[in-house]
């Protein structure tokens, strides 16, 4: 229950304190988005439309937060399940109807029973850094991560809002992005954090065409990710 309340408080603070969110502006891209294809008018129009849908979704979420804390907690408990890996030091929520599956190179993963692109996965790699801020400025680090690690050569990445939160002294970066390829697009949230000598990454995705309907729900998954200290 405490972790759910922390999650609700974290989302609430972002809605009433927008200065806690960082909007990327790199390489001359519009203030609301970082896009590798900002020179293309059709892509810009698509990005603006996507951004408006995202803002509408945020408004719906704000309305939902008018419910009592107990009602929200009950809704989360009913619609989500908790995955806890004490051995590897992390936990998160995932939609209750999703099932686990093996995702190559990742430690845990769950997906929709019918739509494979709707999934969440967590992986980690060794690091000598102790905090996510050690990667440098958040906007620059995330820009490099999405463009140079997440995006395949045939995909055009666009990055939306970036947010930092601190829970129990640990810092987390959560950001939204698209990967566009000929004929299809994937939208996602990612949360990254460093602890236990590991660089943790949670990514939750969906088909771009379904993103406006799923965005708020998948944001709950991204915001729920937490790391915990490993015991000897």
Automatic annotation (TrEMBL):
One GO term (biological process): photosynthesis
GO cellular component: extrinsic component of membrane; photosystem II oxygen evolving complex
Pfam families: PsbP (PF01789)
Gene3D superfamilies xrefs: Mog1/PsbP, alpha/beta/alpha sandwich (3.40.1000.10)
All copies of domain PsbP C-terminal, residue ranges: 79-227
InterPro entries listed in its UniProt record: Mog1/PsbP_a/b/a-sand, PsbP_C
GO terms, molecular function: calcium ion binding
Protein name: PsbP C-terminal domain-containing protein
């Amino acid at each position: 229950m405490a972790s759910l309340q922390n999650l609700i408080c974290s989302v609430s603070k972002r809605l009433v304190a927008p200065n806690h969110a960082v909007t990327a502006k790199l390489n001359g891209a519009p203030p609301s988005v970082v896009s590798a294809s900002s020179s293309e008018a059709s892509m810009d129009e698509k990005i603006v439309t996507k951004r408006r849908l995202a803002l509408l979704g945020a408004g719906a979420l704000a309305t939902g937060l008018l419910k009592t804390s107990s009602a929200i907690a009950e809704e989360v408990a009913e619609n989500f399940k908790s995955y806890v890996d004490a051995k590897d030091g992390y936990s998160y929520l995932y939609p209750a109807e999703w099932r686990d599956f093996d995702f190559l190179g990742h430690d845990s993963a769950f997906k929709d029973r019918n739509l494979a692109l709707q999934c969440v996965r967590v992986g980690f790699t060794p690091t000598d850094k102790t905090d996510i801020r050690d990667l440098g400025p958040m906007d620059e680090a995330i820009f490099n991560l999405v463009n140079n690690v997440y995006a395949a050569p045939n995909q055009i990445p666009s990055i939306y809002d970036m947010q930092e939160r601190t829970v129990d002294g640990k810092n987390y970066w959560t950001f939204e992005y698209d990967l566009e390829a000929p004929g299809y697009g994937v939208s996602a949230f990612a949360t990254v954090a460093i602890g236990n000598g590991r660089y943790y990454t949670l990514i939750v995705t969906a088909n771009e065409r379904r993103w406006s309907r799923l965005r708020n729900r998948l944001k709950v998954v991204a915001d729920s990710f937490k790391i915990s200290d490993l015991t000897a």
